[in-house]
Amino acid sequence: MTVAPHAPLLFFDSGVGGLSILGPARAALPNAPVVYAADSAGFPYGTKSEAEIAARVPALLGRLVERYRPRLAVIACNTASTIALPAVRAALDIPVVGTVPAIKPAALLSQSRVFGVLGTDATVRQPYVDRLAAEHGADCTVLRHGSAALVQLAEAKLRGEPLDPAIARDALAGLLDQPGGDRMDIVVLACTHFPLVEAELATASPRPLRFVHGGEGIARRIAYLTVGQEWPSAPSPGTALFTRLDQGVEPLRAALASYGLQRMEGL
């Protein structure tokens, strides 16, 4: 199938977390046109039921694909991917890349054979996480903790607001205080918001921990799926789209621009 050079990459998340996926993707494909869609009207996903997310995400992505005609869509959200990825792929006629917890690399890297999965409540309870842990970390102790507050911390950071260090400290304590937590050496950042506050998590940790996430791997997957396709000869301003344009969006303008998203629109 011939793809027009101006056909964009579509990134989708509940909020700004998908920027941790967009950053490596733009580094790999600097001339790629980009539409970044944040479901601000549905934010946050991590506290919603599986049924709500399974109904909402495919419908929204269908509207976005109809509007922007992207060459590829990235669900840059672990919660949406672990719940709705098969339904989205069935509904769309373009390649769809999901974002899944980086449990495989964590299992390969862990020296102590104890690692943590830090995500949203909705992600850490998914059977998908059970399957990944069984497949790649069968000889490991896999600790899990969900933190909705850490999602809000990432959003606040990108709005330039003062940050409460207790939020990162409490999120890590949810793993460290579990049986085996004293031996944990790796933390999987299983929400795309969390790499945006990796520095805050590292500062809050009582001892050195290694944090892993999937941004670089997703960028490689996007490059692989678009190999041989034509791109514009130079970078162009990206579009940030919000399903609800409210007072929380304007303070994000500077952060979005730093990721190449100069235009802002509502759905």
Index terms:
267 residues, alpha/beta, six-stranded parallel sheet, 10 strands
Number of helices: 11
Rough outline: globular
Contiguous runs where pLDDT drops below 50 for at least 5 residues: none
In terms of structural class, how would the helical and strand content be classed?
A: alpha/beta
Helix share, percent: 40-55%
User: Mean pLDDT across all residues, rounded?
Assistant: 94
Largest sheet: 6 strands, parallel
Query: How many strand segments?
Result: 10
Computed Rg: 18 Å
Q: Which oligomeric state applies? A: single chain
Ends apart, CA distance between termini: 28 Å
Strand order of the largest sheet: 4-3-1-2-9-10
Order of helices and strands: EHEHEHEHEHHEHHEHEHEHE
Strand proportion: 15-25%
Brief account:
This protein is of the alpha/beta class and 267 residues long. The chain is built from eleven helices and ten strands.
